[in-house]
Amino acid sequence: MSTITTEELSATTLLRFATAGSVDDGKSTLVGRLLHDSKSVLTDQLEAVQRVSADRGQDAPDLALLTDGLRAEREQGITIDVAYRYFATPRRRFILADTPGHVQYTRNMVTGASTAELTVVLVDARNGVVEQTRRHAAIAALLRVPHVVLAVNKMDLVEYKESVFAAIAEEFTAYASELGVPEITAIPISALAGDNVVEPSANMDWYGGPTFLEHLESVPVAHDLSHCHARLPVQYVIRPQNAEHPDYRGYAGQIAAGTFRVGESVTVLPSGRATKIFGIDLLGKAVRTAWTTQSVTLLLEDDIDISRGDLIVPSKDAPATTQDIEATVCHVADAPLTVGHRVLLKHGTRTVKAIVKDIPSRLTLDDLSLHPHPGQLVANDIGRVKIRTAEPLPVDSYADSRRTGSFILIDPADGTTLTAGMVGESFAAPEPVKDGTDDDGWDF
Predict the structure, then answer these.
(1) Closest by alpha carbon to 35, among 11, 77, 2, 81?
(2) CA 318, CA 322: separation in Å to the nearest integer?
(3) What pTM was computed for the model?
(4) How far is Cα of residue 9 from the mean position of the Cα atoms in its chain?
């Protein structure tokens, strides 16, 4: 396994990407091939895979076993849970989320792709674009993943024909472009044979583009949120009240976006109280500036009633607070989401009671038409919802911030996650409807 010096690693950028595709499209094999051919597999891991493969009577090691870690996954030959892998090349570091392909586990694809800058959608060259392919493309567009790679796999089983690849690439690109996916790159591969994964394929000399790894290493990464609207969801109030720190009161959390500076005027939401940053503590040391993803403690000039769930923002760039949220959602629970459904809405570190006031539309994946007023969303449905919350929330548009523009709906009875939501407009723009009324229960 190749080694990378600390200096080389510090000079590389980080790419978070997720894989998606239908069952048996070869996602785990692709990931295994990528790790193996890029020399990112430890010797003992490879030996274990070779041993298990030999026990099964296989002549060559089954590289899918490098990612399918659950016993049920290995027995059934499918991916069930999201498998995260961390690896690096001299040019870039990677966090990979191998997500399930079975429609039953589509909800896990939402989890894996929610923080990704790139999504890989695999297609079996023999089957072409299928319903699950369209669903994964829709989720990638819904989550506003900036880069999508169409990996047309198993080209060895269609005699490496350029016409097969071209037809699939044309159909998928047209569909994804209509959804609003900003960048689509199609690559013909054979994960089993290694064609165009890490090394160029001698069997597809008609393809002049990059290999899969070359594209991952060179795709622009625009995930620097330090220039976005500054947001700090408060996770914990620190008050030691000891002899060393008798008056210390700090507000701790991970900066979701933007940059905070000592002396900056800030507003605490949803109360709307304004103050200034007196100090910033980072890893036990005082700093003048802190930025996205750093976990910090802010010290404020004024004593303000602040608790977990509040949001600290620059006074000049504060989002509006509202109790009426309209969003595009992907329903992930087995039980349907219905109009009048009473739920808990978790936004950042705050959880409030809410009610589903309306479901204006559901997206039909085949032709991207909108089914108006379906009354409910079932598992894996994508649609628009209108929600009324018991308390005002400071929400951003998901187009502006994937962190503070997202939320989940939770079943208050058992804590089950019901729905993942993205605030604001999306490719599924609903037609205007009148708000309904609900005089029973949680009517805010």
Answers:
(1) 2
(2) 13
(3) 0.76
(4) 24
